[in-house]
Amino acid sequence: MFIHCQNTGDASGSALRDRSHIENMLEVATEPSTEVSGAIKKLLNIYHKAIKPMEDAFKYNELRQHEVTDGEITSKPMVLFLGPWSVGKSSMINYLLGLHGTSQELYTGAEPTTSEYTVIMHGDKFRTIEGIVMAADSSRSFSPLEKFGQGFLERFVGIEMSHKLLERVTFVDTPGIIENRKQQERGYPYNEVCQWFIDRADLIFLVFDPTKLDVGGELEMLFRQMKGRESQIRLILNKADSLSTQDLMRVYGALFWSMAPLINVTEPPRVYVSSFWPFDYAVDTSRDLFMKEEISLLEDLNQVIENQIENKIAFIRQHAIRVRIHALLVDRYLQTYHEKLGWFGDPHEVFQDIVNDPDKYYIFKSILAKTNVSKFDLPDKEAYQDFFGVNPVSHFKQLSQHCSWSGGCLLEKIERAISHELPSLLSGVGKNSDPAAPAKCEETPKNRWRRQ
Q1: Per-residue CA distances from 221 to 78, 192, 246, 254 (Å)
Q2: In terms of C-beta density within 10 A (0-12 exposed, 13-18 middle, 19 or more buried), how is residue 400 classed?
Q3: Which H helix or E strand runs over 317?
Q4: Is residue 204 within 8 Å of 234, Cβ to Cβ?
Q5: Are 237 and 208 in contact (CB under 8 A)?
Q6: Does the keyword Cell membrane apply (predicted)?
Q7: 293, 294, 298, 304: CA torsion to nearest 10
Q8: How high does pLDDT run on average in the chain?
Q9: Distance CA 226, CA 217 (A)
Q10: Where are the domains of the chain?
Q11: Neighbouring C-alpha atoms within 13 Å toward the C-beta of 233
Q12: How wide is the angle at C-alpha 180 spanned by C-alphas 174 and 181, nearest 5°?
């Protein structure tokens, strides 16, 4: 049964809005591009030949805790829905997919209804998949979620359905934030799970109800976790037709007042003000404004979908830069260790001194002298105290020893990927489009959503 308390009137008697503009704007009828699949295959090849060997040799995943899998590289763009309970996250997904009144409709209601992380994705037929199955399937991008334990996997579910839009994008619905309460025992590390999805989202819709703009501890923590991902955040002031225009203006200002201390950026995230559900707007409300806002949001979403391959290439290149810097740092620690050890030094004491005070041995400053290394990309020095605490120095070989006559050197491979192969792949995207297609005179919009 469909339950929604967006308006005071009876929703069952309201007319349904025409949603053909959604189908048109998101190009739902368009077949997935063969160019995208070809570029993904090339990207996988570069990753496995030039980047992953360096990851494995220097145990990068134990430093960053962000394992890149084949499933993540080949996955569709991910749109993450976050926000307090009963703000309309599930209703918005139902509206975008046209699920209202069908057996596939996500349950919605006035009370907290989504207690699971729900991944809505494309499949040949409608079915639900248990979290334990999702995490065990290495072909998907969710296998790293096993580390959060059985308590989380019991609250993780996948829904597959045959839908044209889901051939281009994946939606993730999340449990609502519940403020003004004591710490709730969720049974799994909620903040860490949120961070995992935030790190992998191409677009984050942070949804609010204009009648309840509570900003409490969980929401503040969520914004701290999204630091550095501000370009992916969109604020949604949903259920906007439940207020008069004057009240809506007050709420809009209050939203910015509440969010300003939490988002420390020069340009605040874009705010969309509308009512994202299938029923017609309430009478005597700003219908034209709401429709324009909805169209802008759809354009925003379509831009992210269209830029999926550019985003993935940029993300893998940034990942490769971090892996290279990590390898250079470990190599520098090793060089310094061998130089200072001498004949009679205590190996443990010598290396511990280097790890505890790397500035004394110019470990990080020496790396900045290397080509294409920014001080803003350097990891925290404290991270290497933990890293070497579980990975003894004897587990590593210096970079000069990771070379062979047949395979070349790991450092040369990853530098070639960063400087030539990945930029070349990026510049080639879009150049193989249909030559018969008419040229467009419009200025190509800047890709504001590329991962940095």
Answers
A1: 21, 11, 31, 20
A2: exposed
A3: helix 308-341
A4: yes
A5: yes
A6: no
A7: 50
A8: 85
A9: 14
A10: 69-306, 314-428
A11: 23
A12: 80
SS3 state at 269: coil
At residue 185, the pLDDT reads 63
Task: Evaluate the CA torsion angle 69, 73, 75, 81 in order and state its sign.
Answer: positive
CA–CA distance, 278 with 289 (Å, rounded to integer) = 17
Nearest to 272 by CA among 356, 219, 207: 207
pLDDT tens digits, one per residue of 339-354:
988 776 788 899 999 9
Q: What is the DSSP letter of 33?
A: P
Return d(Cα 63, Cα 66) in angstroms, integer: 8
pTM beyond 0.90: the answer is no
What totals of helices (H) and strands (E) does the chain contain, helices first?
Answer: 18, 10
Residue-wise pLDDT for 394-413, tens only, equals 899 999 999 998 889 999 99
Question: Which residues are paired to 16 by β-bridges?
Answer: 279
Alpha-carbon distance of 18 to 31, in angstroms, equals 23
Based on C-alpha coordinates, what's the Rg of the chain?
25
Query: How many CB atoms are closer than 10 A to CB 157?
Result: 18
Q: Tokens at residue 320, please?
A: 């490769």
Position of tokens 């967006």? 6
Task: Give the DSSP per-residue string, 203-265.
Answer: EEEEEEBTTB----HHHHHHHHHTTT-GGGEEEEE--GGGS-HHHHHHHHHHHHHHHTTT---
What span, in angstroms and rounded, lies between the C-alpha atoms of 223 and 201? 14
**How many degrees, rounded to 5, is the angle at CA 261 between CA 259 and CA 267?**
70
- Could you count the other beta carbons within 10 Å of the beta carbon of residue 435? 5
Count of beta carbons in the 10 Å neighbourhood of residue 150: 12
**CA 233/CA 304 separation, integer angstroms:** 12
CB within 8 Å of 151: residues ≥ 6 apart: 186, 187, 188
pLDDT in tens, 53-64: 999 999 998 887
Q: CB 161: neighbour CB atoms within 10 A?
A: 18
Beta-bridge partner residues of 235:
206, 271
CATH code of domain 69-306: 3.40.50.300
Task: Work out the angle at residue 161's Cα, subtended by the Cα atoms of residues 91 and 232, and round it to the nearest 5 degrees.
Answer: 55
Neighbours of 384 (CB within 10 A): 22
| CA–CA gap between residue 209 and residue 226 (Å, rounded) | 20
Position of tokens 């993540």? Answer: 72
Choice among 13-27, 144-158, 231-245, 256-270 with the minimum mean pLDDT: 256-270
The DSSP letter of residue 145 is G
